[in-house]
Amino acid sequence: MTxxxxxxxxxxxxxxxxxxxxxxxxxxxxxxxxxxxxxxxxIALLDTCGHELxxxxxxxxxxxxxxxxxxxxxxxxxxxxxxxxxxGLLDQALAxxxxxxxxxxxxxxxxxxxxxxxxxxxxxxxxxxxxxxxAFDVTDELAERQQQLSLALRTxxxxxxxxxxxxxxxxxxxxxxxxxxxxxxxxxxxxxxxxAIAPEHRQAVQEAFAGLEDPGDQVxxxxxxxxxxxxxxxxxxxxxxxxxxxxxxxxLVGVTRDVTDEVDRRGALEETVRQExxxxxxxxxxxxxxxxxxxxxAVGAAITERVPQAMGAIGTLVMRAEHGRFTSLAASGAGTPxxxxxxxxxxxxxVPAARVVRDDRACYxxxxxxxxxxxxxxxxDLLSRTQxxxxxxxxxxxAGRPSGVLALGFARWHDFPPCERALLSTVAxxxxxxLARTALVQDRVELAQAVQHLLMPSRLSHLxxxxxxxxxxxxxxxxxxxGDWYDAFPLADGRYALCVGDVEGHDVRAAAVMGQIRTAVxxxxxxxxxxxxVLAKANDLLSSLGGGHFATCTYLVLDERRGCxxxxxxxxxxxxxxxxxxxxxxxxxxxxxxxxxQPGSAYVTVRRPLTAVRTLVLLSDGLVEGPELDLDxxxxxxxxxxxxxxxxxxxxxxxxxxxxxxxxGHLDDAALLVVRQEPTG
Length: 681
Fold this sequence. Notes:
By secondary structure, the protein is an alpha+beta fold. The chain contains 17 helices and 26 strands. Helix 1 crosses helix 2 (about 25-35).
C-alpha cells in the first residue's frame, strides 16, 4: 500500500539537503523509487506506529495481501496469533536509538500443507523518523543455508568479512561486524579496528598482516582490543588471500572470533593454578616450620606468621583447652581481640570455639547469620569484636582427645569448599601434633633442667682471694641431660679444691653417675692428702658401681699458704693457665685412665708455684673439640681468648669462651670453670 500524499523519497532528499549534504539531482527520487520497486526482497517504510507508508510489490508477495482498505499496520498481513509478536519486533527496533536492525523468523501459511519461513528485519532510522523493514522468504534452500550460516556465526561469536586489499572496500556478512561492538567510520570499520587494538599487541598484528602478498597466504593471530564501551575484548583472526571480483583483486577473506570468555577462563585457570601452587608451597613451609618447632611458642609463631598468607585469612588464633578453660597460646590480626575475649573462658560457654572442643568437630561459619545460629543469637556479641565475618574453627587433638582450637578469620563471606576444608584439617592436624610433641619436649627440658640444677652447685663457694665463674651449656637440642660438671669448694685445712669432669653419655643414668662422682670427690677431698689420691678413690668407687659408665676428670688443689698448685687428671682435656706476664700455657698433668675403666689405677699429682698464675680455666671437651674443630685448635683458641681478656672479669671471660663451642659442629654439652686470683695488698 502507498500513501500518494507523501512522497517519501522527496522528503528524504529534502532532509539530505537540509543537513548540508549539497544539492540533490532531481533524478535521484525517481531512481530511488525505481530501485525500491524492483528490489529482490520485500521492503516497506513504516511509521512509528507500524503503518505502511511505502511498500514494493515483493513485500506483498512475501507477506501476503493487506486485508481491507486504508492505512493499516504491517502486522495486519500476519495471522492473528502472530500480530502481537510482530508489534513487539517493531517496538524493539524503535527502542534502539543507534539504528541496529532487529529480526525475527515468522512461520506463515503456505500453499498446500507446507508452511513458509519469512525473515523480517526492522531498522529504526531516527534521522527520518521512520523505520525500514525488509521481508525475505527463506524457505528455499539457498536462503535457508544463508540463515543457518548466519545463526552459526552468531552462535560461535564469529564475524565473517572480506577486504579488498587494493581499494580497501569492506564486506561484512549479515551484519556480523556488530561482533566488535564498534561503529564504523565513513562506512569502514577496519581503520577503527586498527586504532582499537591494544598498544602492546598493535605491532605484532601489523607484522602478521604485513606479510600477506599472494593468493593462498594466510594469517592467524590473537589480540586484545577495546570496544566503544571501553570493554577489553580478545579477538582471534583467521584469514587468507583469495582472488575475487572482475578483474580479479586480492581480497583478504576471514573470520573473527570473540575469544574473550576463553581467554578469561584460561587466565582464571592459570591464576588458580598459580595460587594453588603458591598455597602448596606455603603449606610446605608451614609443615616444615611446625616439624622443626621445638617449643610451643615456635608452634604459635609458625601459625600466626605463615597460615594467614597461605589461606588468605586476616587473623588466626591458637587456644589451648586446659583445666576446663581456654588459654591463649598465639594470635594475630583479627584473631587477637578474639583470643583476648576467649582467654580464661570456660569450655561450657556458648561460643563456637567451646563447641568445637566439646564436639571434637570443626565448625565453619560462612556468614553472620550462621554465626548467630551457631551461638543461639550471639549472646557475647562476638561479631562486633573483630573485623572477620567468616570463621573456620578446627579442633586440636593430643593423644586422640581435643586439646585446643585453631581458628582462622576471613574478611568476607567465605564458603569453605571441600578442598579448602581438607587443607585446613591438615594444618590443624600438623598443629596438634606439633603442640603435643613440643609439650613433651618442654616437659623433658624442664625435667632435665631440674635434675641438672640439683646435681650442679647452686652457687660457687666464696673463696677468699679468688673470683670465679662457672658455665654449663646443655646439648644444642635443649633436651638431653648431660654428664658434664664443675665444682669448687674449700677443704678443711684451708686449701681450695677445683674440679671439672665429664661422664660418658647424655641420659638420666649419666647424670646420676655424675652426681655420685661429684659427691665422692667432695667426700674424698676431705680425707685424702692430694689430687692423685682423690681420683684413685673415685676411680675405685665408680668401678665398683658397674653399669659400664666411665668419666674423665681434672682435679686441682690451691694451697695459698704454701703458694703452690697441685693437679691430677683422669684422661681429661688440659686446662689453660693465664700467667701474670700475659702469656698462657696448658695445664696438662700426666693423664691417668678415665675413672671407672681400670680398678686400682694410680694418678700422678704435679705441683707448681702459684705466684705466676693469674687465671685458671678448666673445661670439658664439649667446649673445644668436635667434628669441625680438633682439640689442638680448640685449646689454641681458648688460649687466645684468655690472653685477649686478661683484664676482663671471670664472668666476661667465661661468656667469651663459650663462643668456641659454636665452632665444634656437634650437639655435646660443655662445662667451664674460670678462676682468677685477686691481687693482694
